[in-house]
Amino acid sequence: MKLQGRSFQNNSPIEVNIVDERIESVKPTSQQTNDFLIGPGFTDIQVNGYGGIDYNELYTDASKLSPVTQLLYKAGVTTHYPTIITNSVEQISKLIKQVVALRKTDELSRWSIEGLHMEGPFISPADGPRGAHPKEFVCGPDWNLMQQWQEDADGLISIITLSPEWENANHFIEQCVKNNMLVSIGHTQATHQQVLDAISAGAKLSTHLGNGMHPVIPRFPNYLWSQLSDDRLSASVIADGFHLPVEVIQVFKKVKNEKMILVSDSVSLAGMPPGDYDLHIGGQVTLTKEGKLHLRNNPTIFAGSSSNLKECVSFLVRNNLATLSEAWEMASIRPQKLLHSDVPVFEKDAVADLVVLKRSEDGQIEVVKAIKEGKEVYSG
Question: Which of 165, 227, 362, 369 is disulfide-compatible with 356, CB 3.0–4.6 A?
């Protein structure tokens, strides 16, 4: 397969040659090319659901989850991590096994789901930091339990979001790191020292920094400053125009620089039309025509994100928060490097996970084509 267009990095004409599932070459070309931009496919490490389908709901047939992968291809997301949130021990086991069954029965899902993200139950029980997670199932880190879930997952659990405020958090983090799991700090009210200790134990990321917090926090010290100030932590942000104001994203980007990545944190209503909905988690909610998802009786409280990574990239570019090249990198190369530091992306010998985009006059971006494992999986 051969792709011709312009590089997402510098807009120069390029030709990408794909042999089997890998990139054979990415090289400049003097031939006339179109204005389509070619670059790595987006990687979303936090997907709770999409298109009316929820990874946190049990279905009679695991294959009912397969449309999520296909819908995300249309948004340029070639790799995603289903995110299981706080629930009972038994229910989490069932939800994990459901994703494992999905990957065994659906080839596209197997290609695109590189791992699982466990967001809880080892988070803060406090109102505010806990977010929408059910309090009755929150508990302290339990390595035996984690091993049980990893066994259920056939080793698929790759990311764990937790709060370092628990007494045994550091030992748990060390065990996760030894077993090749990325540890992320989130939904926390940890002290400054607890955050530092967690980083020293091996935590590398902050989960949706600036969200999952108390509405009002002390001027200083506080857990936001502690995470923002430490250069050892990368930070994921939800750039949907609702979860974080523009000026907050500006500050996060200046401080974290190349360690800021994008996540959607999408829930099942992402990609759905505006309206009122009843969710098994979240209850009665409203999705506005602008894309804000909130509790029906309280518009000030979010009920999750209804965006995808393509829309987050567009938001950054339209608001002059990043160039398209930089925003694209936040959604693709950076999360991949965070999880697989030694694996090449968008270069010779890399797996051919690519997207072709075009920019519209209003600043939006549209997906023209998605390539996964060297095969075309979406064409618009």
Answer: 369
